[in-house]
Design goal:
- The protein starts with a strand and ends with a strand.
- The chain is built from eight helices and 21 strands.
- Helix 2 crosses helix 3, helix 2 packs parallel to helix 4 and helix 5 packs parallel to helix 6.
- The longest helix is centred in the middle third of the chain and has 18 residues.
- It has about 350 residues and is of the alpha+beta class.
Length: about 350
């Protein structure tokens, strides 16, 4: 049985539906990332799990126990969960030791046991040398480690993280992605992690749940969701992709107007409309024609150091974006030929 189960979870504010019949099962010890743009319902889902709001429809269950249903929700403090916010929410007047010990102190735990557990947790997040400092004396990354230590030291049933790295600069964010994953591998708490950052989700998650307009578009491992997106939204949002539409010639081939493109899987119905996706870096560009390649015109090219970003137009005007090698310096208005490898053209089902 899954440890955390959301069944038909819906939240409405008057006529506005912000979460629409979400079903999700999270196994014990799994780290799940709710990924999507602002307003997609991911934070509302987290708040429903935490017990800050009640569902309009549906239920939240943990270890078989029903925690939320319409008109009834177990209070957050009785759910055995810890939550980490964007702002860290550390007590500025308390030392790092006292911040981490706060939840254990509320539980009236023996002082010797508190000291033992706090120091062990601070060692786990590599902050034992800062035990007597105050939050204002720490960097943003260090403060986030304190917030993680405080959340983990109480041994929660479920750890909830709401955009925990959004206030950090790019370098610290990258470092903390791996730190979150390292700590999860060490302690194996069931974790629900909300983010709009694709790299965070790919780095940290066992399961990525892509959300859009209050619904789950697709759920799967990072590799599965990236490599086999089921919808145009998922293909574009996670990693960036060209989405090409057309009419199916047969089960595997799609006429996109500029030419016929074979796909990795035979899922189309002949004569029906269809769509495929191909990642920017999977398109092959050459200044010479080749068998099966489609003619295109360079609209612009931008040097980005390790890559070049190309904007192309196929013969029928279809836009195509390509991530190419940095030495492929093709000027605007020049004709090129693009190859769309069959194994990289993924048919979209929605």
């Amino acid at each position: 049985m899954a440890h955390l189960v959301l069944q038909g979870l819906t939240k409405r504010y008057g006529p506005l539906t912000v979460l629409d019949s979400v079903d999700l099962a999270v196994e014990k010890g799994q780290l799940v990332c709710l990924l999507g743009p602002s307003g997609c319902g991911k934070t509302t889902t987290l708040r429903l799990v935490a017990g800050f709001i009640e569902p309009t429809e549906g239920t939240v269950r943990v270890a078989g126990q029903e925690l939320s249903r319409p008109g009834s929700a177990l209070p957050p403090e009785r759910r055995g969960m810890s939550m980490i916010f964007q702002s860290y929410a550390l007590w500025p007047h308390l030392t790092i030791f006292d911040n981490v010990a706060y939840g254990l102190t509320l539980r009236k735990m023996d002082k010797a046991e508190i000291g033992k557990r706090v120091r062990a947790m601070l060692a786990a997040v590599k902050l034992e040398h800062l035990v007597d400092r105050y939050p204002g004396e720490l960097s943003g990354g260090q403060q986030q480690r304190v917030a993680l230590a405080r959340a983990l030291v109480v041994e929660p049933q479920i750890l909830l993280l709401d955009e925990p790295l959004s206030n950090l600069d790019a370098a610290l964010r990258e470092e903390m992605r791996f730190e979150v994953r390292r700590l999860h591998d060490e302690f194996r708490y069931t974790t629900v992690y909300v983010t709009h950052d694709q790299a965070e989700a790919m780095t940290a998650a066992d399961l990525i749940v892509v959300m859009n307009q209050g619904k789950i578009e697709q759920a799967g491992s990072p590799e599965e969701v990236y490599s086999r997106p089921r919808s145009a939204f998922v293909a574009k949002f996670l990693g960036g992709a060209n989405v090409l539409t057309g009419r199916a010639v047969d089960a595997r081939r799609l006429d996109i107007g500029a030419g016929v493109v074979p796909c990795a899987e035979p899922v189309f119905a002949a004569g029906a409309e269809g769509a495929l996706s191909i990642r920017f870096h999977e398109v092959r560009v050459s200044d010479r024609p080749a068998a099966g390649a489609l003619p295109a015109k360079v609209l612009r090219q931008t040097f980005l150091g390790s890559t070049r970003d190309l904007a192309l137009a196929l013969s029928d005007g279809t836009a195509l974006r390509v991530t190419a090698a940095p030495d492929l310096a093709i000027p605007a208005d020049q004709q090129v030929w693009v190859a769309l490898p069959q194994e990289r053209c993924r048919p979209l089902l929605a």
